[in-house]
Amino acid sequence: MDMYDVITRKKLGEELSKDEIDFFIKEYVKGDIPDYQMSALLMAIFFKGMSYRETADLTAAMAASGEQIDLTAIKGIKVDKHSTGGVGDKTTLVVAPIVAACGLPVAKMSGRGLGHTGGTIDKLEAIKGYNSELTTEQFVKQVNDYKLAIVGQTGNLAPADKKLYALRDVTSTVDSIPLIASSIMSKKIAAGADAIVLDVKVGNGAFMKSLAEAEELANCMVSIGEALNRRTIAVISDMEQPLGSAIGNANEVLEAIRVLQGNGPEDLLELSKVLAAQMLIVGEKTSSTVDAYKLIDNAINTGEALDTFYKFLEMQGANINDIDNLEQVISNNTERFKICALATGYISELAAEQIGRATMLLGAGRAVKDANINPFVGVIFHKKAGDYVKTGDTICEVRYSEEIQLQSVVSVINNAIKITKNVVQSQKLIHKIITKK
């Protein structure tokens, strides 16, 4: 087989065979196909696209390029959840213990964040002692015993994706639906889950800016999952403004705990329930959304979800006293600055992308892969889009550790806030749920 012919066929808009896709992934990972040829193929895919069948074959080849986790020793249907990323998105910290408390095993591999704010592992590592590195035996035993474990992604999970993403990043081919979908799904497939629920973000603070783009990506990923024998559902959720009230790793852990206690912001609770319900459905705990919500409400109201969260953290080395004193730990490590309304009216916009950038400037996220994260800094919102404010009312509170960062952060956040005299309708949080056609 010849790479020149593969490039030519895709350049002409032809469908590549499974053998051709397996060939270029395998040979590229081995180093036998040079970057300049793979760049040409990526650009051809960018312009000509791929069918759902091609994209599923590409995903399978990428998943098979490295380690594939075997979770068969875990009893029951293993359900995974993935978010395409957003500002203040701490739903895994809420959803995973709820689902586990309902009796469905959650064996999850999560990443560290690059960009606005930390990933799930960054958030959990804000708790002193938390260990994100378990052996396979420890991982399996913990899920069998307590229904929940969350660890960092192994270094050899879908190495083809790492190589291809680095090349896409420098060849302006990142924003291709087949390449985005195969990148996400290859890691999910390799991680060993039986079923997958996807939270596809759309809006100002998301990679997908339009609902049409988000639907296209969601449909593509659902088709991949189903083609590779994983029952898959995608929820398209709004990311025009930050999710919940807290942004920043330790601050988001605190907010997740409040939701599990039955408190917390309505939008975070609503999305968490929707995602948990879909996980219970793909995990075959129930086929009814109504029944799923009953299970979820019972897990929260009885305290079982919160108990599951604490037990899981304790089993992975977290200091329980540190969790209970997290608010004080944050206060001891940060200063506070209030950002107030500059006019009277209704908040029409809290631009998530700009607010995310501000929290990254504080040190809550990474501009480059190896940057250190400050677990305690962040932003706490007291008002959200649609709320009425008077001049001088506190909209949010910045928790910072270095005075030098504060001025630029305040400027970015002020630019992200828009106030109008007209009443603003609440933004729709859940746009659509995509299932197998």
TrEMBL record:
<dbReference type="InterPro" id="IPR035902">
    <property type="entry name" value="Nuc_phospho_transferase"/>
</dbReference>
<dbReference type="GO" id="GO:0004645">
    <property type="term" value="F:1,4-alpha-oligoglucan phosphorylase activity"/>
</dbReference>
<comment type="similarity">
    <text>Belongs to the thymidine/pyrimidine-nucleoside phosphorylase family.</text>
</comment>
<feature type="domain" description="Pyrimidine nucleoside phosphorylase C-terminal">
    <location>
        <begin position="346"/>
        <end position="420"/>
    </location>
</feature>
<keyword id="KW-0808">Transferase</keyword>
<dbReference type="InterPro" id="IPR017459">
    <property type="entry name" value="Glycosyl_Trfase_fam3_N_dom"/>
</dbReference>
<dbReference type="GO" id="GO:0006206">
    <property type="term" value="P:pyrimidine nucleobase metabolic process"/>
</dbReference>
<dbReference type="GO" id="GO:0006213">
    <property type="term" value="P:pyrimidine nucleoside metabolic process"/>
</dbReference>
<keyword id="KW-0328">Glycosyltransferase</keyword>
<dbReference type="Pfam" id="PF07831">
    <property type="entry name" value="PYNP_C"/>
</dbReference>
<dbReference type="InterPro" id="IPR036566">
    <property type="entry name" value="PYNP-like_C_sf"/>
</dbReference>
<dbReference type="InterPro" id="IPR036320">
    <property type="entry name" value="Glycosyl_Trfase_fam3_N_dom_sf"/>
</dbReference>
<dbReference type="GO" id="GO:0009032">
    <property type="term" value="F:thymidine phosphorylase activity"/>
</dbReference>
<dbReference type="InterPro" id="IPR000312">
    <property type="entry name" value="Glycosyl_Trfase_fam3"/>
</dbReference>
<dbReference type="Pfam" id="PF02885">
    <property type="entry name" value="Glycos_trans_3N"/>
</dbReference>
<protein>
    <recommendedName>
        <fullName>Pyrimidine-nucleoside phosphorylase</fullName>
        <ecNumber>2.4.2.2</ecNumber>
    </recommendedName>
</protein>
<dbReference type="InterPro" id="IPR013102">
    <property type="entry name" value="PYNP_C"/>
</dbReference>
<dbReference type="InterPro" id="IPR017872">
    <property type="entry name" value="Pyrmidine_PPase_CS"/>
</dbReference>
<dbReference type="InterPro" id="IPR018090">
    <property type="entry name" value="Pyrmidine_PPas_bac/euk"/>
</dbReference>
<comment type="function">
    <text>Catalyzes phosphorolysis of the pyrimidine nucleosides uridine, thymidine and 2'-deoxyuridine with the formation of the corresponding pyrimidine base and ribose-1-phosphate.</text>
</comment>
<dbReference type="GO" id="GO:0005829">
    <property type="term" value="C:cytosol"/>
</dbReference>
<dbReference type="InterPro" id="IPR000053">
    <property type="entry name" value="Thymidine/pyrmidine_PPase"/>
</dbReference>
<comment type="subunit">
    <text>Homodimer.</text>
</comment>
<dbReference type="Pfam" id="PF00591">
    <property type="entry name" value="Glycos_transf_3"/>
</dbReference>
